[in-house]
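User: Reviewer 2 asked us to show a designed sequence for the structure in our supplementary figure. I'm pasting the structure tokens here. Could you produce the per-position amino acids so we can include them in the response letter?
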């Protein structure tokens, strides 16, 4: 029995063989097509943008961006000791292998300080108030002592000379003046002279 007679006698087998051949052909074509579209094997090193300024990024995009990387700033963080606009982080990291036209996500130093809420320092001791200011990214400014039966307790909290209530938003690292009670009956070495 030859092959043609076999297929005529068993048509379902011939259908399965044809379907298998077509499937293999489709898989081979899809593999070549995917490699061509994804530029398989064409990878480039990610430039290092960390520490660079935004103007340096603009220069890179205008003159040196031969692989058409797309730069996108996705976040900013306020760091008081860093130059605003400086790149802090990038994803993917420098020297990573990436393809042409890939997005590189950047984090920069923010230009403006964030706002923070003024905590309630009333009735706390001076030491507790100072710790609370630090934990809320604020600074202890001037300490003014005022006669009071509540020795060493915070009587008022002031910002720029005015009383400030808890929950008011003020700039990060603002200086806060505290009016602290001093019992007139307490004798200390600095008041004796």
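Assistant: Here is a per-position design you can include in the supplement:
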């Amino acid at each position: 029995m030859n092959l043609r007679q076999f297929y005529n006698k068993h048509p379902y087998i011939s259908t399965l063989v044809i379907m298998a051949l077509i499937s293999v052909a489709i898989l081979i074509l899809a593999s070549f097509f995917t490699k061509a579209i994804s530029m398989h094997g064409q990878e480039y090193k990610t430039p290092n943008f960390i520490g660079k300024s935004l103007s340096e990024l603009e220069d890179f995009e205008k003159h040196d961006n031969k692989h058409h990387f797309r730069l996108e700033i996705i976040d900013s963080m306020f760091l008081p000791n860093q130059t605003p606009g400086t790149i802090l982080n990038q994803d993917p990291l420098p020297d990573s292998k990436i393809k042409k036209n890939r997005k590189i996500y950047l984090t920069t130093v923010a230009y403006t300080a964030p706002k923070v809420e003024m905590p309630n320092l009333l009735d706390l001791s001076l030491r507790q108030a100072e710790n609370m200011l630090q934990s809320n990214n604020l600074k202890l400014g001037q300490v003014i002592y005022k006669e009071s039966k509540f020795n060493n307790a915070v009587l008022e909290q002031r910002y720029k000379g005015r009383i400030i209530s808890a929950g008011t938003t003020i700039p990060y690292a603002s200086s806060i003046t505290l009016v602290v009670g001093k019992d007139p009956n307490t004798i200390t070495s600095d008041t004796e002279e």
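For the response letter, you might also mention the following. Residues 11-37 form the longest helix (27 residues). The chain has a mean pLDDT of 87.
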